Amino acid sequence: MANIVTSFCCVVLAAVVVVYAQRRSQQGARIQYERIGCDVTMQCGSLDNDASVTWKVNGTDVKARRREEGPRLILMEVNMSSNGLYSCFQNPDGQRRDQINLRIGFPPKEPQVTCRSNTYPKGFYCSWHLQHPTYIPTDFEVDVQHNQRPLEVMRDEVHKNRCHVKFPELFSTYPYRVNVTAVNSLGRASTTISFEESSIVKPDPPEKVVAKPITNKPRRLEVTWNSPTTWPDVDNFPLKYFLRYRPLIRDQWQHVELSDSTSHIITDAYAGKEYIIQLAAKDMEIGTWSDWSVAVHATPWMEEPKPITSTTESDVIPETTPGPPSAAPRVGKPTAACSTLLWSTHLLLACVLLSIM
C-alpha cells in the first residue's frame, strides 16, 4: 500500500513540475501576434542567416505547412491551431536559443457605442462592444467632449467596457461627442457618436412592484411600486409611469399612463382570473421610456362559496316507494280477484256444454 501511495505522489509531483516548467518557459518567451490567414515568419534570436536550427511547438515537432530558411521558420496561412509556444534549438549541440509565444487573431473593427443617462441629472454612461472577436488582447481608448472641451472619463470598476461621465451643465444646447477606439497589436478602429442631453435620458424600471386583490371587490387589483433607486432626485425631476396588465388567458395588454404616482387600482379585471402586470418609467419632460419592470402576478378577490345549512323537519319531503322500471314489468302470482274470475269462466263453459248434450 505504501508503494502505491509513493508512486502516485511521484506522478503528481512530476506533473506539477512539468506544468510549472511550461509556465516558466512561457513567461520567458516573447509574444508574437499575427493575423489569421497570413504567412508568419519567426526568427530564432539573433543567429546568423547560415545558422542551422531545429524548431518545436509545445515540445513536439512542427507539423504545420512551413518553410525553414536558416534561423527562420515560416508558417504558411496560419489559423487558430497555429497558436502555441515555439522553441528553436541550434544544431548540432541542441542548445535552446529562443522561445516565441505565437498568438493568432484579427485586428479590431469599429466598436458599437451607446450612451444613456439613468441617473439624470448627475451624469451618463457609455458602453461599447465589438461585434466580431479578435482572439487577442484588445484595449479601448475613450474620449468625450462637450462644447469642444474634453470631459473627465471614469472607467467602470465592474463593467470593463463602460465609462461614466458627469454632466458639466444642465439643459445645455451643445451636443456631446464620444469617440471610442479599439486597439490591439494588429490594428485599430474607431467609432464616434454625437447626441444631445435630452436624447439619452432613460430611467431604470420601477422597483418593488406589488399587486394584490381588494377584499369584497371582485374586479379590482391594487398595484404599488417604488421609483428606481438609481434616479437621484425624484422630487425635482419627477417621473411618470406606464402600467400594462392582461389576464394570462389573453395576449392583448391594457395600458394606463400615470403622472407622478406610485399606486393604481385596476377596476376592470376579470374576477378570479390571474393577471400579469408590468410598469415602465420616464422623465416628465425629456428622454424615453425605461424597460419594463419584472412581471408580477395577481388574481382579483373571489367570494368564497356559502356553506350548506342543515335542513329542518318541515323541509323534509316524504319519501315515496319507487315503482318498478317501465322497461321491466314485474311478474308474480295472480291475485285473489283474478283467480275468482277464472273459476267463474270455467263454470259458465261447463253449463253451456251440459245444455247442448
Described by strand count, sense and barrel closure, the largest sheet is: 5 strands, mixed
* Anisotropy-based shape: elongated
Helical stretch count?
A: 2
Give the overall average pLDDT.
85
CATH class of the largest domain: Mainly Beta
**Unreliable segments (pLDDT under 50, ≥5 consecutive)?**
8-26, 313-344
Work out the count of structural domains: 3
E-strand count: 23
Label the CATH architecture of the largest domain.
Answer: Sandwich
Helix coverage percent: 10-25%
**Beta strand %:** 35-45%
According to CATH, the homologous superfamily of the largest domain is: Immunoglobulins
**SSE topology string:** HEEEEEEEEEEEEEEEEEEEEEEEH
CATH topology of the largest domain: Immunoglobulin-like
Radius of gyration in whole Å, from Cα? 46 Å
Query: How do the strands of the widest beta sheet line up side by side?
Result: 1-8-7-3-4
The end-to-end distance, rounded to whole angstroms, is: 132 Å
